[in-house]
Structures
1.
Amino acid sequence: MTAPAGPQLIRAMNEQLLLDHIRSAEKISRAELARRTGLSKPTVSLALTNLERAGLVRASGVRTGTPGPNAVLYEVRPEAGYVLALDVGSEYVRGAICDFAGAVRVRDTQHTRAKSRRGRIGELGKLAEQLCSDLGVRLTDITRTVLGSPGVYDPRRDALSLAGALEGWDHPHLLTELRGVFGSSLMIENDVDAAALAEQTHGHGREVASFAFVSIGTGIGLGLVLDGRLRRGVHGAAGEIAYLPLEGAEVDQDDVRRRGGLEAAASAAGIVAAARRVGLGRAASARQVFEAAAHGDQRAQAVVAAEAVLIARAICSIVAITDPDLVVLGGGIGQADGLVDAVRAELDRIAPVPTELRVSALGSESVVDGCLASGLDQAWTALTSRA
C-alpha cells in the first residue's frame, strides 16, 4: 500500500503546479490561479508567499478595469536562473544567455580559428566568459549550459560519437574537459535537433504537432518532432540521415564510410565534387554552383537537379516512416534559392502521400535558440524541484 503524501510533499506539489501555470501564462492573478488549478484561495496565497521567498516569482503590476478590486499579477522572476547556449561549428562559435523568463539578455558570434579539440574548448570558454561579463553575472551563476554540437550524444554511455565534422571532437576525454570548463550542468544537444527545437518554438513548427526539420549544409541531419516531442532515439542517433545509402557509384567510398552516403553525395562538399566531375573546376563552394545554375550554366543546373533528387528521396524515406504534418528545409543549402521547388516537384512524384514542404525562415542563430529552449526546460525542472 502506498503511504499518503505528507503536508510538505503536498505543499511542494502545489507550488510546482502554480509555477507551471505562472510560466505558461506569463502574468496571472491569484484568483485566476485558483480557478485554473482548483486550489483554494488560501492555499494559492500560501504557495505564492513561499515561491516569492524562494525568489522564483514576483508581483508585477495590477490588472485594472475589471469588476472588483484591482488584481495583483504574478510572473516568473527573470533573475531566478540563467541558461547559457553555445553552438560550435567549423567556421563560427555562437552563444547567448537567456533569463528564467525566457528573455535573451546577450548574444554574440565569433569566427573560430581553432583546429584542435582543446582550441575549440578554449574558444567556447572565452565566449561564455565574455557573455557572462556583458550580462554582469559569473559563469558559476549559470543554471544550465547547453552545447549544440555535431555528432550523437549517447546518455547511456555519456559519450559523443559521429562528430567527424570537427577534428578530434569525438575524443574520449572531450566531455570531461568540457565539464571542467562549464561544470556539471552542461548538456549536449545535437545541433540539428537544437535547430528543430528552435523551429518548434519560433518557426513553422509552432503550427503543427509533428514535423521533420531537414538540415542540408556542410553536414546533413534530421530533427524529428512527433506529437510535440523531439525524438532522439535510444542511442541519441534518431535523425542521422547522413547515413542513408543514397550515394552514387561516383562518390568517394572512403568519404561514404567516414560521413555516410547521403552526406558524402549531397552536402556542400558533395555538391562541389559533383560540379568538378562535370567540368566546373572553378567551383569552390556550393554557393558558387547554385549561382552558376541561376545564371543559366547547364552543367551547374544538372548538379542542382541531381541534388534535389537526392534530398527528395531522403525526405520520401522520412515521410514513408513517420508521415509528419510538415517538412522544413534548413541549412545553407536547404535554404538556397530554387532548391525547394525542385525538391517539391520530385517529392510530389515519389512520395506515398502529399507532403507540405517549407523553407525555414530562421537564420544562423537557430541552433543557439534551440539550445536556449531545451536548457530553459531543464533549468525550470531543476529550480522547481529545488524550490
2.
Amino acid sequence: MVRTIGLAGLLLITGVATYLAYPLLKDNLNGDQVALTRATCDLLAAPCQWQTNDGTWRVELARQEESGQGTTYELTVTTPKPPDRFVAVLRGQSMYMGEYPVPLVRETSNGYRARFTAPVCTVSSDGMVWQLDLQDGQQPLENLPYTLVFRTRT
C-alpha cells in the first residue's frame, strides 16, 4: 500500500514537472531548429532580400577593386527600421581568421553602405568563404532567415 502511494506520488510529481518545463523546452528546441535550417544566401550571386513584420530587408555586395591587400567590396543594406548602432561583422566560415567589424554608414533614412577589404587567405586555391553577420551594437540581429556569405578568390 505504501509502495503504491509512493509510486503514484512520484508519477504525479514527474507529470507536473514535465507540464511546467514543456514551454521552456519547446522554445529552446524551436530556436535550435531555426539555427539548423537557416538558408545560405551568396551575396555575390544575387542580393539577399527578406520580409519582416517591420518591412523589407535587402543586402547587396559588389566587388570593387583588386589590390595587393585583397579585394575591396561594397556592402549595401536597406532596412525597414534603422537599428541604433548598425554594424556588420566579417567572420571566416571556411576557416577562422578572426572577426572584423564593418561599420555601416547611413546614407538615406533606411539605407546603409560600407566599403571593406576581406583579408586574403592563401591556404586554399578555392578561396575563402566569409560570413557577414548583421548586428545592432554587440547584439546579433534576430530572426534573419539567411546566413549571409560570399567567397573570395586568391
3.
Amino acid sequence: MYLSHFGLQELPFTITPDTEFFMSRAGYQDALNVLTIALRSGEGFIKITGEVGVGKTLMCRKLIKTLPDNFDTAYIYNPYLKADSLLFSVASELGIKYKANIDQNELLRRITTKLEENHSNDKKTILCLDEVQAMPISTLEVLRLLTNLETEKDKLLQVVLFGQPELDSVLDHPSIRQLKQRITFSYELLPLNRAALSRYVQHRLLVAGYKGNNLFSKQALNLVYQASNGIPRLINIICHKAMIAAYGEGETSIKPAHVRAATSDTLNAQRTRKRGFRIWFPAISRWVAERAL
C-alpha cells in the first residue's frame, strides 16, 4: 500500500480500536482516571457515554488492558441479548463451566459462587458492556439484580456501561430507575477540538513509525477537522483516504486537495468543497493495481 512511500511500519489510521494507538489526551485520560478510581473504590455502576465513533470501545479495551491482575474482567460487546442470554454470556466470560441444559437459577448460583470466590481471593470482578443503549430493558433489569450480590461492605460485581448519548434516555425508563440511581460515576467522551486533532494525527503517525516532518499541512488538518467534526473514527477514515490520494499522485505530503478528495468519498463527512475527484480516482486505481500484484 503506501507504507514504504511514507516510511511507515503499519497503517496509522485504521478504524479498529487498537490500544497501541491510545492517546493520553485530556478527555481520554480523564475518563480512564475516573474509571480506574471508581473501580478501585468498589463502586457498583459507572457510565461512559459519547457519540458514535468518539472512541468508547477503544476506551473500554484500554481499561481492560490496564487493570491489574487482581481484577477479573468480563467484556460483553453484543447488546442484543435477552435476559437469560446475559447470564450465559457473563458465565462464559468469567470461565464458569456449565451444561447446555442448565436452568437460569443454577446458572445464577454458579455465577454467585464465582463472584464469592474472587472476593475471598481479594479479586474484584468487573463487567464491561458496550453499546448499552441498544440493550433491552428486561436485560438491564437482570443486570441490576446481578449487582445486588454483595457482602456487608463490598459489591461482588462492578459494572461499567458504555453507550451512546441515547443511553441516558433508556435509563429514564421507570422499570430500571433503581439501576440509574446506582450509577455513582459518569463521564462523557467528547469529540476532539482543533488543537487536539493535530496532536491526535501526529500521535498516530508516530506510533505507526513515521519519522519525517509534518505530513499533513496545516490547511489539510483544518479541512480534516471541518469534515470530521472532531470524531476520531471519521478522522481516521479521511486521513487514510487522503494518504491514498497523495500516494496515487506520488506526493510525500498531504495537501488540502487530498483531504477534499477523501471527504467527497466518505459518508457522514461534512463536505468541504466539491473538488478532488480528479485526484481521488487515479489514486484508487493505483492502489487497487498494486494490491493485485
4.
Amino acid sequence: LSPALKYTWYRFRIPFAQEPVSFESVELYYSKTVWSQINFIEQFSPDYSMGRDGEKSVITLKNLKNLPITGITLKTESMFKRLVSGRDSQKYLFNLRFGDSAYQDLTLPTHGYASDTDDLSLYIDDNDDSPIKVDGIDIEYHAARLVFEAPETETLYLYYGNPEIDSPPGYDIANYMDLVLEQGYETLSLGKPEVLETASEPARDYSVYYNIVITVTAAALIIVIVLRLQKVNKNNPE
C-alpha cells in the first residue's frame, strides 16, 4: 500500500482463485510518525531517446547524474494505461478519455532519487499493444542551491522555521510597485561621516550644599527644642 490512503475502506480481490479463500484474522500495520517537509522544486525538460526491449518501450533520459529527482512526467496524446517503471519506482500511468470525461495521471514519482549515472531509463510495459507516442518529458527535482546576486555592502540573513514566511504581510503598494519604479527615482549621495566632539563639563560636587542644608536644619531643630523647654519651665514653676 502507498504511504497514505484517501478512503476509509478498501476491497481486495484475489484473481483466478479456484476455491474461496478464508481468513481467520486481519492485522493492520500503520506508522504513527507524522512529518512534513517543504522543498524548493525546479523543472526542466531533459534530452531523451526511445528504444525497445522485447515487449517494453525504453525511454533513456540524459544528463541526470546526482540530480535529486522527485517526479518524471510524460507528455503524450496517446490513450493508454500501462505500467511504467524506473529505478526503485513503478506505477500505472494512464491517459484515458471516455466521451467528455478525461482521466489522466502521467507522473512517475521518484521521491528524490538521485542517479549515480548520467542516463536514467524508464520502461513501459506495452505487452501486445503498440508503443505510445511520447511528445516530451518534464523532470521535477529538489533545488539543492539558491543562487542570487547580493549587494556587497549589506548583511544578508537566511530565515527558516518562521511561520510568518508562509503568510507574509501584504500591502497595497505591492499592487502598483512596478508603476512606481517606472517613474524613476533620485539617489541621495551621503558624504564621509564626521564625528562631532563636544566639550565635556566637569561633574559638580554637591556635597558642600548638602552639608550646609543638614547643618541649618539641625540648628533650627535645636532652637525649637530649647524654646519649647523654656516655655514648659515657665508654665510649671517649682
